[in-house]
């Protein structure tokens, strides 16, 4: 079958999409992975019908039109929401902004991260029960010990970094607040008044929290001049905006290089607030500090803050850092919270989520979805894209810069080392943001 996998944020999704694509290709399917331009080729019928994996089915007019066009091309639409929202306590508001009766009815299968989002979606859309299936997200599989070697980097470990995981958007975003609001209006997010109210609360809270973090970072970098600190901005945040908050410091770096998982795996301590990084750090058995200088009355994202230590001010934060390095103690996690972890993220150590998704795809197999594509036209389109980029500087998408061929090959080889059933899969680079995976002939 033809399988078309959308990639939106390179640092967040590339490796998990590769993992998923490799398993699909090992079953004999032709897999294309790329940005939204890939799916436009399906809409325009320049690619034959296939199974599409969308990263969301938000009820915007443009997304509804996309899914309708996929159907006109006799393609099958599947989706796993990459935003997830599983760290939220009130998931209903989030899900109502990401799904609608219209988009769910147009989609053939919706993959859930775990029991948590599955149950919530069933309650919101009971008439579409058969469309929802718990597969887990391959991104979470990458937290397991099996894939540890993919993220082990001795050059980071040598410097003993303390990672500060940022997730603020407002104040350090790549976009102005007016642009963010415009996007929400155009995509009908604010049609849901609960979501609009939640959005305002979150932005207000995050702006206050940002200034508390900046003050705390200045404090701990001064208190611990011999420790190395790294701020890892969220994909939607600007390194330039972050740099504006600080004078140059020898022991502070701000970087989007490497993935979040690379930094979490190789740092000594992870500092965050309400960030998925706190949950991943727990899965990777790291030392974690939740910095909570402002009490969040809504508790909308307090789940990740239950893992590790809690500091309510910058002095406490410094004392905990000192204690972790000097005393080498671990903080136990409440059993109920451990159960919640599995409830939300599934059994990532013992189950293969990529295999589960592929099993669901196989149920749609038919002749129409298996018509071979003539990729000569697609390669020509992408060659023109590359030539155009040589003469006209393209818009630099912070979420998805041009792909690095050598990096992808390196990741593929590491994944193959974990599972020799993937060894016969071939990689072909087609364009700056498009590649193919298929069985070696």
What can you see in these coordinates?
With 441 residues, this protein is an alpha/beta fold. The chain has helices spanning 10-26, 36-43, 61-72, 91-98, 101-106, 115-124, 138-141, 154-159, 177-186, 193-223, 239-243, 260-266, 276-283, 314-327, 335-345, 353-362, 376-391, 405-418; strands spanning 2-6, 30-34, 51-54, 76-79, 109-112, 132-134, 161-165, 228-232, 252-254, 269-272, 287-291, 309-311, 425-431, 434-439. It has an 8-stranded mixed sheet, with helices on both faces. The protein has a 6-stranded parallel sheet with strand order 9-8-7-10-11-12, sandwiched between helices. α1 links the parallel β1 and β2. α1 (10-26) crosses α16 (353-362) and α4 packs across α6.
Number of domains: 2
Number of strand elements = 14
- Would you tell me which CATH topology of the largest domain applies? Rossmann fold
Structure class = alpha/beta
Amount of helix? 40-55%
This entry's quaternary arrangement is single chain
Q: Cα-atom Rg, whole angstroms? A: 22 Å
Runs in which pLDDT lies below 50 for 5 or more consecutive residues are none
The tally of helices reads 18
Give the strand order of the largest sheet, numbering strands 1, 2, ... along the chain. Answer: 6-5-4-3-1-2-14-13
Measured by DSSP, the beta-strand proportion falls in 5-15%
């Amino acid at each position: 079958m033809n399988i078309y996998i959308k990639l939106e944020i390179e640092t967040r999704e590339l490796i998990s999409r590769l993992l998923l694509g490799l398993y699909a290709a090992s079953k004999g399917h032709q897999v294309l992975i790329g940005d939204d331009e890939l799916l436009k080729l399906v809409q325009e019928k320049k690619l034959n019908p296939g199974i599409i994996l969308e990263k969301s089915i938000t009820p915007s007019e443009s997304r509804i039109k996309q899914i309708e066009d996929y159907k006109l091309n006799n393609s099958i639409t599947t989706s796993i929401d990459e935003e997830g929202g599983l760290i939220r306590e009130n998931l209903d508001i989030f899900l109502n902004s990401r799904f609608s009766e219209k988009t769910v009815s147009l989609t053939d299968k919706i993959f859930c991260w775990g029991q948590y989002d599955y149950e919530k979606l069933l309650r919101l859309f009971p008439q579409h029960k058969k469309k929802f299936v718990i597969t887990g997200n391959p991104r979470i599989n990458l937290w397991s010990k099996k894939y540890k070697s993919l993220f082990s980097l001795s050059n980071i470990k040598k410097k003993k970094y303390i990672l500060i995981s940022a997730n603020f958007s407002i104040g350090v975003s790549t976009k102005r607040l007016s642009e963010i609001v415009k996007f929400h209006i155009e995509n009908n997010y604010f049609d849901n008044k609960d979501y609009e109210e939640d959005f305002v609360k979150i932005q207000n809270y995050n702006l206050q929290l940002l200034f508390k973090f900046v003050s705390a970072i200045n404090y701990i970098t001064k208190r611990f001049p011999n420790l190395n600190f790294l701020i890892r901005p969220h994909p939607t945040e600007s390194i330039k905006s972050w740099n504006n908050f600080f004078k140059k410091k020898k022991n502070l770096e701000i970087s989007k290089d490497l993935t979040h998982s690379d930094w979490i795996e190789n740092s000594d301590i992870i500092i965050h607030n309400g960030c998925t990084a706190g949950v991943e750090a727990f899965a990777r058995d790291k030392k974690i500090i939740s910095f909570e200088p402002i009490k969040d009355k809504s508790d909308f994202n307090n789940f990740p803050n239950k893992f590790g230590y809690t500091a309510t001010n910058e002095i406490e934060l410094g004392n905990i850092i000192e204690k972790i390095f000097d005393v080498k103690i671990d903080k136990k996690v409440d059993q109920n919270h451990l159960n919640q972890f599995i409830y939300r993220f599934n059994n990532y150590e013992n189950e293969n989520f990529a295999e589960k998704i592929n099993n669901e795809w196989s149920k749609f197999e038919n002749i129409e979805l298996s018509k071979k594509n003539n990729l000569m036209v697609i390669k020509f389109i992408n060659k023109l894209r590359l030539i155009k980029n040589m003469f006209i500087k393209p818009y630099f998408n912070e979420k998805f810069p041009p792909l690095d061929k050598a990096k992808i090959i390196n990741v593929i080889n590491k994944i193959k080392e974990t599972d020799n059933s993937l060894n016969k899969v071939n990689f072909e680079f087609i364009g700056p943001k498009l590649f193919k995976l298929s069985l070696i002939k």
